[in-house]
TrEMBL record, chain A:
EC class name: transferase
Species this chain originates from: Actinidia chinensis var. chinensis
Gene3D superfamilies: Vaccinia Virus protein VP39
EC code(s) of this entry: 2.1.1.201
GO biological process: one example: methylation
Residues that, per the record, bind S-adenosyl-L-methionine: T94, D131, D161, A162
Lineage: Eukaryota, Viridiplantae, Streptophyta, Embryophyta, Tracheophyta
Binding partners and assembly: Component of a multi-subunit COQ enzyme complex, composed of at least COQ3, COQ4, COQ5, COQ6, COQ7 and COQ9. Interacts with PYURF; the interaction is direct, stabilizes COQ5 protein and associates PYURF with COQ enzyme complex.
Pfam families tied to this protein: Ubie_methyltran (PF01209)
Classification via NCBIfam families: MenG_MenH_UbiE, PRK00216.1-3
Gene name in the database record: COQ5
Predominant location category: mitochondrion
The protein's name: 2-methoxy-6-polyprenyl-1,4-benzoquinol methylase, mitochondrial
A cellular component annotation (GO) from this entry: extrinsic component of mitochondrial inner membrane
TrEMBL record, chain B:
Listed name of the protein: Ubiquinone biosynthesis protein
Keyword Nucleus: no
Upper classification of the organism: Eukaryota, Viridiplantae, Streptophyta, Embryophyta, Tracheophyta
Pathway the protein contributes to: Cofactor biosynthesis; ubiquinone biosynthesis
Pfam family, one: COQ9
Keywords: Lipid-binding, Mitochondrion, Transit peptide, Ubiquinone, Ubiquinone biosynthesis
COQ9 C-terminal domain residues: 215-283
GO biological process, one term: ubiquinone biosynthetic process
Biased composition (Low complexity): 34-53, 66-81
GO cellular component, as recorded: mitochondrial inner membrane
Chain positions covered by the region annotation Disordered: 22-108
Molecular-function GO terms, alphabetical: lipid binding
Amino acid sequence: MALRMCTKSLRRKLFPVFNSASLLHSHSTSFGFKEVREEEKSQMVGNVFSSVASNYDLMNDVMSAGLHRLWKDRLVSKLNPFPGMRHLDVAGGTGDVAFRILETINSVDHRALQDVLEDNLHEDTQIYVCDINPNMLNVGKKRAQERGLENHQSLVWVEGDAEALSFEDDSMDGYTIAFGIRNVTHIEKVLAEAHRVLKSGGRFLCLELSHVEVPVFKQLYDYYSFSVIPAIGELVAGDRESYQYLVESIRRFPSQDKFASMIADAGFQKVEYENLVGGVVAVHSGWKF
Amino acid sequence: MYRSAAKRLLLLQSRVCNGHPQISGVRTLTIPNSPRFSSTSASSSQTFSDQSPNFPHQSHAQNPNFSDSASSASSSQSSGFESEDAPHHESRTSKGSPPRAQYQEEQARVLSASLRHVPNLGWTEAAMIAGAREAGVSPSIIGSFPRKEAALVEFFMDECLQLLMDRIDSEKDLRNLIPSERISKLVRIRLEMQAPFISKWPQALSIQAQPQNITTSFKQRAMLVDEIWHAAGDEASDVDWYAKRAALGAIYSTTEVYMLTDKSPDFHDTWTFLDGRVRDAFDLKKTFQEDFHVTPQRVVEFLQAKYLAEAVGAGMGSSLQGFMRRVFQG
Ligand SMILES: C[S@@+](CC[C@H](N)C(=O)[O-])C[C@H]1O[C@@H](n2cnc3c(N)ncnc32)[C@H](O)[C@@H]1O
């Protein structure tokens, strides 16, 4: 399980919100199974990530047994990055996906491609990392530094909301969002924005925790997620509540088919998805034309 | 098979298509036939409704017209894909083939533009990137071709077959030729379409011979051979239809390979070689069947062995022999 959050402070931050939310009937949105007022959700998600940002990798590895790395590799290989690409990775604070894209473009194979194409395309390559949370972006920048990429002209860090992007229409070749769309208040708005910023021919890819359908595995997975994950959460982070949130929010997220139809409704074509590990995660894909 | 596989099936084989012009290779990951996400379905009406009024013209405007290079006996090595107007497909498209989704029109437009870069860049992703840029489409579209370069080669094969059919319809002279000459002429017309790409054709053959592409390569070649037999006035109901297909297949591919190393002006030697092989086949068939009562099957096997030996004699690589064996023996 790639994890989105884990923090001791989460519980403290959530409780007041849940109280006020329980009084409201309209404009509520899912924060786990608990109803939360819309404007508070993004703030709440922000708070959660502020405090977990630096532990983030550790938790990702613990919860997914390291698999999130393979899933992200799969995401990027589907993307098929190319020299000169303008790409936007949303909710990409830690830079995980962006670094992979950059590495793929700079790999030997792609160098050859570039030589053949003869322009100086690498200079045009731009990978924008957009995240609502400046702390997550800082984690990403720090990691870029560790990789010697801090001054890399292709990487651009942008603070911004997936529901209201600051990028121009028809300006991107690719759009990715990994383990991010489940945190947002309006999935439809995020999809509409993704569609808006992509060029004709541009690719939308979303990696997200999803619904397991394989029978026996589903039961094991349910057991794992409802019992084991909160327990690990308590053990590692001293915080059962936030893992409860995680598990519940996965159940809340639309099924693969439903989500695919939402992507199609946003105007994408040739919408497909691929389940990984029996649907623990799914990669959804579409093109704008 | 991106350009017109569905339409071709309808036209050529009168087979009933499932009316869902999805590309088979991508289907595994696609939600199968689900009307909810299929851009070809009526449910996503916004995408569906734009496509017929706007796109046919746009895509035709981009279509290469390389019939000129084909009819001019390949006297110039310049790519015939530079020309921008191609009225050929209009009539076919209007003959009731299922409309393609917008993304398929865009895919075709990109592949078509990519062909113009093949003489320089080869059958490569680089040519496809250049083609996408030229067509004003993001190169991300290349991710929608699961077998990348193979899509380009297959598109080319499809385009060539389409052009060949157009020539068959338009060239009345063909009917005055005797069958063996007609076959020679048709094979030549078809192979001349490869002339502008000849330096990159070995690469195309090796792409076609890759295990994941061989099924499509085989089908495309079978369709080509069937079309030529059909145009030669041969009705496919004959008992020795399989043998005829295989014999022509062997002639076609041997000539194709011969052409790769032919440095004579306008591939003069290739056409002489071709005429010889076709005459041989017709003579042999007669001799064997009438005088020795050998089955057509045996004749074909004999021809294949003979041609392979000749190909080796002409100094062709063993990989190409392997290719021919695989493509023509299924
Ligand atoms: C689970 S993390 C995923 C990080 C990274 N993509 C990965 O896969 O490792 C979710 C990220 O989404 C960001 N996020 C949440 N809501 C957002 C929004 N509305 N717009 C942009 N980013 C958002 C959070 O700040 C956080 O960095």
